[in-house]
């Protein structure tokens, strides 16, 4: 390892490529271990490829997550405190749903609000 001072006083470090790549590998492994720990602790989950594909294809995120969670539209509407027709309009793209309603839906579906947009 070698250090260099730049004209503005910043210290730079020069590493052999193998040492640099080892540091990157260690950082990647640490990040993967954090993700595994979050999944094991229930703070995160693996999302099946089918769900990702449906979301990326433009299908209603509320509908996709609802079906993934095994909820009927009637059950989701009841748990979110909204009418089934209103949920149907949200899933069908006819209405966007107010922020408070979307927060309730996200809570019931156990997803972040961002996952429904």
From TrEMBL:
<protein>
    <submittedName>
        <fullName>XRE family transcriptional regulator</fullName>
    </submittedName>
</protein>
<dbReference type="Pfam" id="PF01381">
    <property type="entry name" value="HTH_3"/>
</dbReference>
<dbReference type="InterPro" id="IPR001387">
    <property type="entry name" value="Cro/C1-type_HTH"/>
</dbReference>
<feature type="domain" description="HTH cro/C1-type">
    <location>
        <begin position="62"/>
        <end position="116"/>
    </location>
</feature>
<keyword id="KW-0238">DNA-binding</keyword>
<dbReference type="InterPro" id="IPR010982">
    <property type="entry name" value="Lambda_DNA-bd_dom_sf"/>
</dbReference>
<dbReference type="InterPro" id="IPR050807">
    <property type="entry name" value="TransReg_Diox_bact_type"/>
</dbReference>
